Structure formats: structure tokens, C-alpha cells
Amino acid sequence: MVTGRELWVILLQVGLTPLFMLFVFDTILGGQGIVGSGFAELFLPGVVALAALTTGLQSVALPLVKEFGFTMEIEDRLLAPLPTGLVAVGKLIVATVRGLLAAVLVYPLGALIVGSAPWRPAGLPMVLLVALLGAWVGAAIGMSLATSLPVQRINVAFSVILTPIIWTGCIHYPWPRLSSMPWYQAATALNPMTYVSEGVRGALLPGVPHLPGWVCLAVLTTVAAVLTWVSVRCFIRRAVQ
Predict the structure, then answer these.
(1) Residue 169's domain spans which residues?
(2) SS in 3 state form for 157-168?
(3) What pLDDT digit, counting tens, does each position of 173-213 carry?
(4) What is d(CA 169, CA 103) in angstroms, rounded to the nearest whole number?
């Protein structure tokens, strides 16, 4: 119900960064011939991945900063007849739903901007699964940051964390094509966003070089499990304090 009431907020949250990036790189740079005409097809799957992970991150991190702030609104949530760890899991689930919704919304919006979009019905289950895992990973990252760092350092932490996540996440390019820069290819392999982008891109554009789908699912599942444990532990420790 809350997500439905805040749908316009989600649209703004989804649209600003990913869609402006798509507009600049495809419509402006593509119209001037600076980038190739097929760049949008490579970029749009990355935009879907970006929307899923970053929306999941912001949907849990920003509210938690407020709830653990001066007013301590989190105490009302902790009064629920649930173990404290399940309160944290509930917040991860809500943020994941918002991230998945963001991925679903940004695809047609991006298609309107560029005028076309890769479409492969057989790959849709893979797209949804990868976006779901990506949103969960983003939510777990956001909870870990919001519950382990001092409130006054959250803004700096977001800049430090989000910038490399976005620009080393293979949003703009397929991972195999970085083979000429092995050091950068290795750096992108450490970023969970890479596996979200490659999973979505491979499902929609199987003819483009990409990481195998099973690799993306295996890495994202492992990262999601580890970050879930870390984020819930951080939430419990902060709540007890």
C-alpha cells in the first residue's frame, strides 16, 4: 500500500539518473555520431540493472538513516512481535520489491527515449530473476551502510560507494570486451552490479558477448546471502545500541 501511494516518488527515483544517462548517451551523443547507433541496445539492459540495484539501496538506506536518527523512529518498528532480525528482513523485502518495480518501469520508459528496445520473451524470466537478486543485493548494501556508519558520514559514504558501483558495473559495455584492459576487467569483476548488467544483457541480447547466465546467478546468489547476513547483523547491533 505504501509503495502504491508513493508510485510517483519511485518514478522520479527511477527516472532521474538512469533515464538522463540514456538520453545523453543515446539521443545527444548518438545524434551527433559520437557513439554508434547500436549503443542504446547495449546500454538499456544496463540501465535496467542500475535502476534495480540503486533503487533497492536507496529504498532501505535513506529511511533507516532517518529512523536511527535523533527521533529514533526505529523503536516503533522494533515493538513488532517479531525477532529483530526479521524486522530487518522485512525492510530488505520491501526495498527489493521497490527495486524490482523500478526495473520493470524503467524498461518501457527507456524504450520511449531511444525509440526501440531489445525484446526477447524467452529471456524475461531470467531478466526478472537477475533484477530481483540485484535489488536484494542493493538493499543489503544500503542496510549495511545505514546501520554501520555514523549518520553524519552517510552522504559521503553514498558518494564513495555509488560512484564506483555505477561506473565499474558494466552498465555501458559488455564485460568480455574489456579483455584489452585486464586490470579494469578484474576490477569490474569485483562489482556485483556487473553481474546484474551482464545477466540482463545476456537474457535480452544473447548474440552480444556476455558472461554466462549461470555465472551471474551464482555470483549474485552468493553475494546476496553474504550481504544479507552482514546487513542483518549490523541492523541487530545498531538496534540493540
Answers:
(1) 2-240
(2) HHHHHHHHHHHC
(3) 899 989 889 999 999 999 999 999 999 999 998 888 889 99
(4) 16
